[in-house]
Amino acid sequence: MEISGIVTAIVIGVVIGVLGRLVVPGCQRIGVLWTIAVGVVAALIGTAVAAGFGVADTKGFDWIELIIQVGLAAAGVAALDRVKGRG
Predict the structure, then answer these.
(1) CB 72 within 8 Å of CB 30
(2) Which residue in 30, 42, 68, 84 has a CA-CA distance of 20 to 30 Å to 60?
(3) What's the count of helices (H) and strands (E) in the chain, helices before strands?
(4) CA–CA separation, 33 and 65 (whole Å)
């Protein structure tokens, strides 16, 4: 993986993480770096899931892939918030 791919993954992860955080109601007790990490992981897993369903590479913008990624990010943010809230 080249440096441009890493930078792209981080930028997409930030966007996906923020969108996922916006979907979760209430105030989350996780920081920006955790949000980015959750977003990057959700983006990677969401792409794999979309590829598994055959919707990763479509003509135009991949709305279904984005919805999967944001849903995974929201689930990740909510789960991490619960874990961090207990500690």
Answers:
(1) no
(2) 42
(3) 3, 0
(4) 23
- Mean pLDDT over all residues of the chain? 85
Q: How many CB atoms lie within 10 A of CB 54?
A: 9
8 A C-beta contact, residue 39 and residue 17: yes
Query: Side chain identity at 56, as an amino acid letter?
Result: A
**Which of 85, 77, 2 shows the shortest CA–CA distance to 36?**
77
Helix (H) or strand (E) holding 82: helix 63-86
Q: How far apart are CA 21 and CA 54, in angstroms?
A: 27
Predicted model pTM: 0.83
What burial class does residue 45 get, using C-beta atoms within 10 Å of its C-beta: 0-12 exposed, 13-18 middle, 19+ buried? Answer: middle
Place of tokens 């943010």: 77
* Euclidean distance between CA atoms 62 and 66, whole angstroms: 6
Asked whether 9 and 42 are in contact (CB, 8 A), the reply is: no
